[in-house]
Amino acid sequence: MDRIIQQFFNVEIMIAAWPMLLDGLGVTLLLCLAVIPLGLAGGLLAALGSLARSRWVRLPTIFFVDFFRAVPPLVLLIFIYAGLPFAGLRISPFTAVVIGFFLNNSAYYGEIFRAGIQSVGFGQTEAARSTGLTATQTLAHVVLPQAVRNVLPDLLSNTIEVVKLTSLASVVSLGELLHAADMARSVTYNASPIVLAALVYLILLWPFVRLVSRFGRGLGA
């Protein structure tokens, strides 16, 4: 038991590794601040495109959503970071992660938004248009607020997945939380920094997990 504690729960090593992990946490939060808003915006555009009347808009959008939902995000990230240089495009690890996660999350958020929009009865649109609202005003002030409410637990759940997804950035040597913990592990030859990183993720995400459960029960009532 003592060997397990020393190898996985060594407090001295955790304290020594904490400054490095704190820097990594800052990068993780910065990634979230970039990826989540971009993914939400891209997802909304994807949802609107997949519901468009024009086939020239709808079909390419559906292909975009299906393609980036099917491609593993790790494969996409490696392709962007390691593959684009062969085409003469060299980008930083941070930019590669943002682009890869933007494409992946836009597809997932798009499907959630699409389901939310379709859950709003067409009668709501007709009633809004009969009051003189334009199509854009109806979408912004009538349809989207109800759509977001209907799929809010799914949006929050996907956002939690996005935060966890940032750990994949370690494969391109971006100094986010998991990468920092792994660097500390390689120096100390001890798994305690990895355990500490897991605890940080748990503390960071637990309130949102509870929030999703609360919203889910509230909407189901």
How many distinct helices?
A: 10
Mean pLDDT: 87
In the predicted model, the low-confidence regions spanning at least 5 consecutive residues are: none
What is the annotated CATH architecture?
Answer: Orthogonal Bundle
The CATH topology is given as MetI-like fold
Structural category is: mainly alpha
Instruction: Tell me the series of helices and strands, N- to C-terminal.
Output: HHHHHHHHHH
Strand content: under 5%
Number of strand segments: 0
Shape from CA axes?
elongated
Question: Which secondary structure elements does this structure contain, and how are they paired or packed?
Answer:
Blueprint: H1 2-8, H2 11-50, H3 55-70, H4 73-83, H5 93-119, H6 122-130, H7 135-150, H8 152-165, H9 177-188, H10 192-220
Helix pairs in contact: 2-3, 2-5, 2-9, 2-10, 3-5, 4-5, 5-7, 5-8, 6-7, 8-10, 9-10
